[in-house]
Amino acid sequence: MSDTQRIDCMKCRHYYVTWDPNFPKGCRAFGFKSHTMPSIAVRSSSGKACLNFESKTGNGQTLK
């Protein structure tokens, strides 16, 4: 995946919805909750696209 490609966390097996109304989106791979999509939080803190994306389809392919 290139650094300019947008990652859809909702298609990632690590994404989950939390019970915390202040931080409703979570990433199990990085172990954090966020108000924004985790891939946006990763890009803003590291400057790079998320490298832990794994498709929910289970076949190893990324979804578009």
Write the layout of secondary structure elements.
Layout: E1 15-17, E2 25-27, E3 32-34, H1 38-46
Low-confidence stretches: none
State mean pLDDT (0 to 100 scale): 87
From the alpha carbons, calculate the radius of gyration and give it in angstroms: 11 Å
Strand content: 5-15%
Compute the number of strand runs.
Answer: 3
Strand order of the largest sheet: 1-2-3
Helix content: 10-25%
From the N-terminal CA to the C-terminal CA, the straight-line distance is 11 Å
Q: Total number of helical segments?
A: 1
The major sheet is characterized as: 3 strands, antiparallel
Task: Label the structural class.
Answer: alpha+beta
The sequence of SSEs as H and E is EEEH
What would you call the shape?
globular
Describe the model.
- The chain is of the alpha+beta class and 64 residues long.
- The chain has a domain at 9-46.
- Helices cover 14% and strands 14% of the residues.
- It has one helix and three strands; from the N terminus they run βββα.
- It has one helix at residues 38-46, and strands at residues 15-17, 25-27, 32-34.
- The protein has a three-stranded antiparallel beta sheet with strand order 1-2-3, with no helix packed on it.
- Strand 1 (15-17) and strand 2 form a beta hairpin.
- The longest helix has 9 residues, at 38-46.
- The radius of gyration is 11 Å and the shape is globular.
- The chain starts with 14 loop residues before the first strand and ends in an 18-residue tail after the last helix.
